Amino acid sequence: MPAFKIRSCLFLLLLLSSAVTLSSAGGRPSAYDMLEKFDFPKGILPEGVPSYELKDDGSFTVFLASNCEFKVDGGYLLKYDSKITGKVDARALTDVKGVSVKVLFAWFSIGSVARSDAALNFYVGPLSATFPVANFEECPRCRCGFDCATAASIATQSDES
User: Fold this and answer.
1) Mean pLDDT (whole number) for 113-119
2) 68-82: per-residue pLDDT in tens?
């Protein structure tokens, strides 16, 4: 066999073994994959979750690099702490700690989220708000939320002034 073919075969074998190593190292589902497994859209978590823990009883901890705040439609401000805890079950997040919403001048903790067909119900104490699941197809980004293009455009315009 010519040396070129041997080198090509060795190179291909090296590439294949690297791909297998990478896929097994990254074989753990992301926090977003786990949300979808429990029938929640990935967009209820901000972009960039580096790690999470999920126990057999459904209790979870999600870790963010830092606290995260952004505005959403309706003028509400959402805040995610760098550590979010709770319990997950099919179509229900309960005992949630580390996520809050600012309504007028006060902050309220979002204690649970339930999925019903095409809607998500967010519970803040005895009050709730319902939003279409389609609103959460994309993950929000810290500081600019779901509309980062507009935020970047406004920032660029103000820098140019």
Assistant:
1) 94
2) 999 887 778 999 999
* Total number of domains constituting the chain: 1
What pLDDT, on the 0 to 100 scale, is given for residue 150?
A: 57
**Residue 55: is it exposed, middle or buried by C-beta count within 10 angstroms (0-12/13-18/19+)?**
exposed
DSSP per-residue codes, 102-158: EETTEEEE--EEEEETTEEEEEETTEEEEEEGGGGSS--BTTTBT-HHHHHHHHHHH
Among all chains, which residue has been given the structure tokens 């040396």?
Answer: 3
Q: What is the CATH number of the domain that holds 133?
A: 2.30.240.10
Mean pLDDT score across all residues of the chain: 80
Burial class (CB in 10 A: 0-12, 13-18, 19+), 56: exposed
Residues 49 and 47: their CA atoms lie apart, in Å, by: 6
Residue 79 within any structural domain of the chain: yes
- Domain membership of residue 123 as a residue range: 31-160
**In a domain? residue 12:** no
Closest CA to 76 of 124, 117, 111, 114: 124
